[in-house]
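Summary for the lay section of the report: proteins are chains of building blocks that fold into shapes. Here we show the chain for Serine protease K12H4.7 and then a coded description of the shape we predicted for it.
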Amino acid sequence: MAFRIGVFICRVAAVVLLAVLAGEGRRLKGSGRWDRPQAAGDNQTVLVVDQWFVQTLDHFNGADSRVWKQRYFVNDKFYRDGGPVFLMIGGEGPANPAWMENGTWLLYAQKMGALCLLLEHRFYGQSHPTPDLSTENLRFLSSRQALADLAHFRTAMGEARGLTNSQWVAFGGSYPGSLAAWFRLKYPHLVHASVATSAPVNAAVNFPEYLEVVWRSLASENPECPLLVKKASDTLIQRLKDPTTFDTITIDFNLCSALRPRSQMDSAYFLETLAGSFMDVVQYNQDNREFEVGIGAGSQVVPY
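The coded shape description reads as follows.
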């Protein structure tokens, strides 16, 4: 019975590949709903309020004295005199205050008596260095500027809170994981250690190994599953080679505008969008970050 159910699920998945609303960008990443886990320590709720740090706009131009306000959060519930400082690094999205009440890092903080800080990444959430996102202003959005933000924040907060000589540990996952690793590498005098979770520090343009992991994950449910997905993908690839099929593809996928790929890159991007649905299910379903997106709506990722 389990085998037949697995085959059925994979057949449905293959059909979904040819029927998802790709043009409307219906991706799973960041759109799920999970149950909320228990916070670290006792059940006392931590009051998380927005705090603001006066940050430098351009760390690499001494003639530019402009500043802006960067949001951060604090949890001093577990802090003991002489304890370390844990700095959670925000990434490409709003900083979630739920991290100040949940997550493995708080178990470490409780054990080690650490002060916990979370710094939101520039240009995301409520941390707006510039009034708009013009091309001119987006030059200030870079990992180099973000690392300098961290260095300035760490130095200033260390002085303000008497934590200059404390051991600071940076935490981050995915892109923030890379920032955590680079922070330790670039500013070793400021960071005692870094916990870089799933950090793509060696970025690769062509990364087929990712899909190999997805394949193995799908096959773990049933070996036929990735074969069915591949069959559906191959069929779509062949259709994309024939311009006479573009109108029907537009209808099949309910695209917002008519499919008119002008290059192989356009077709590749379309296919990547569809493949992303399978990649996201593998990467984010029940990913041990239950509190990150929502509360009380089941334990699995659901599309929006």
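Put simply, here is one thing we learned. The chain has nine helices and six strands.
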